[in-house]
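Inverse folding, one chain.
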């Protein structure tokens, strides 16, 4: 694997100069709160750095199907939870109780904070692959894949970039993180990763004065895994935004 990475890096050779990256404008500030300005300000600063380094940036008005608020209509995981659990729990390699999803659900032993607010939705009878809505969503995923390939082809892109999420990470103990932008890769299976852009302004509430880390996603097409990693490495070298973790001396 390391050899493949070195070959990909050697093939690119020229660093960031001449790279063509698409900026998904609908992935900026689609969710607003008192912290969103930290993300958008740092992202625009990053775009300036990339442009100065010779990156050709194409600002894209993506198809409405790409919008983070619309991608939820293509999610299928909740329809697969029960069957996936049952297949695992009844497999020959599984020897202990429980024996079904419903047995887990009714046990009273589930930490609802850990499983999140959608846990009860996944337990509904209609949430199964036999529901026609499940197949409709699978078709939407295939449409998303075609649209993603079309965006890359029409704009001759080497990658897509956008903030990993539009607001700062929530505090420990919160049950929901708004403003997330990760569904595009998880639904389409396209390779992507997160590069550190920097930190929120010092003094942000709850960060100990160190700032809260903010990331940028870099996304490619299927089979471009090493290409995406190469771009991420070049961007990380340019931004120099990584910081060693701060360990408090307090017990």
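Residues assigned per position:
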């Amino acid at each position: 694997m390391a050899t493949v990475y070195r070959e990909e890096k050697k093939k690119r050779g020229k660093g960031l100069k001449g790279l063509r990256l698409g900026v998904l404008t609908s992935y900026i500030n689609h969710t607003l709160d008192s912290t969103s300005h930290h993300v958008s300000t740092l992202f625009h600063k990053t775009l300036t750095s990339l442009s100065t380094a010779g990156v050709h940036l194409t600002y894209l008005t993506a198809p409405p199907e790409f919008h983070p608020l619309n991608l939820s209509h293509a999610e299928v995981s909740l329809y697969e939870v029960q069957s996936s659990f049952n297949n695992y729990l009844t497999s020959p390699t599984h020897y202990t109780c429980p024996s079904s999803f419903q047995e887990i659900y009714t046990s009273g032993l589930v930490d609802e904070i850990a499983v999140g607010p959608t846990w009860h939705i996944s337990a509904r009878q209609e949430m199964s692959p036999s529901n026609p809505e499940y197949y409709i969503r699978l078709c939407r995923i295939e449409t998303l894949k075609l649209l993603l390939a079309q965006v890359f082809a029409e704009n001759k892109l080497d990658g897509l970039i956008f903030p990993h999420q539009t607001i700062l990470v929530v505090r420990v103990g919160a049950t929901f993180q708004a403003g997330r932008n990760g569904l595009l890769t998880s639904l389409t299976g396209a390779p992507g990763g997160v590069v550190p852009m920097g930190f929120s302004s010092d003094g942000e509430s709850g960060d100990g004065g160190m700032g809260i880390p903010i990331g940028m996603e870099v996304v490619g097409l299927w089979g471009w895994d090493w290409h995406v990693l190469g771009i991420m490495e070049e961007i990380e070298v340019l931004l120099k935004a990584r910081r060693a973790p701060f360990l408090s001396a307090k017990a």
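The radius of gyration is 21 Å. The chain has one domain: 2-239.
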